[in-house]
Amino acid sequence: xxxxxxxxxxxxxxxxxxxxxxxxxxxxxxxxxxxxxxxxxxxxxxxxxxxxxxxxxxxxxxxxxxxxxxxxxxxxxxxxxxxxxxxxxxxxxxxxxxxxxxxxxxxxxxxxxxxxxxxxxxxxxxxxxxxxxxxxxxxxxxxxxxxxxxxxxxxxxxxxxxxxxxxxxxxxxxxxxxxxxxxxxxxxxxxxxxxxxxxxxxxxxxxxxxxxxxxxxxxxxxxxxxxxxxxxxxxxxxxxxxxxxxxxxxxxxxxxxxxxxxxxxxxxxxxxxxxxxxxxxxxxxxxxxxxxxxxxxxxxxxxxxxxxxxxxxxxxxxxxxxxxxxxxxxxxxxxxxxxxxxxxx
Length: 345
Ligand code: PAF
Known about the structure:
This protein is an alpha/beta fold. It is built from ten helices and nine strands. The strands form two sheets. It has a six-stranded parallel β-sheet with strand order 1-4-3-2-5-6, with helices on both faces. It has a three-stranded antiparallel β-sheet with strand order 7-8-9, with helices on one face. It is globular, with a radius of gyration of 21 Å. Pantoate (PAF) binds next to strand 2 and helix 6.
């Protein structure tokens, strides 16, 4: 009997041969196969991508693989939240909802959960910048913004996605807009390596106060979580200015920085027992196809306005304070808004 996720008919495919054996007849049967790549720790953003994939395809494969290649040697690979039981329970529940909703073409057909041995048959090459092995690098887009702070990150993402795409041979792949630079990298990967795959980007899912859903939000704890929506508020200030006609990169960055700096100054005025602090890694207005900075937004093209903010550890926690997953180390949060193209007046 094939292995399934508890309380569902979702197949659990644990290696590449099992995935290939399941995939092969789908082409013959003219079934559209979607892949939603994840590293587990599923949240509402993932579930919304899976819902969309089920609306548009006969089969949805969700991959759950915590990819060591996209973590730097000093990053949080070892502590990254691992929530397998909750993840598969969420998928089983979502699949029941999909079955009850006649608007969907498909369901969650399979979870692909390979081991590192499956994904790196010659052995894992390592997390160092100069590690030797078979990598996919997409430059220069992979070297700026997130790639500047995390030099092996996009090499790891592009490499694992190439492997997942080769193993699953999806017709469509689904990624979230929250990781804007990642979506640009994936589009370039598909285009430059002539992969017969459509890349679909789903909207960022936000909590009611604007914080973008992310697997890393569990690191925040209550105090930093309460402050974190400042990121979206800052981006929205610039979005508003763009909507009112502002196209200067400097002016748009100024809008974001005014909000981020203002709130930080307020926090700094509080005693350490009450405040939370952060450092702004970058604020960027970039070309939507290359992620390279622009001096002014070309209204015919639009731009991506993005930021990365490092929430610093709480300095003086009170007795019993919720400091977040593994006691609240620094957490780097990223977010972005799309400045859409518009007709010039
Ligand atoms: O966005 C993520 O969770 C990861 O970067 C991805 C695309 C699953 C590759 O490991």
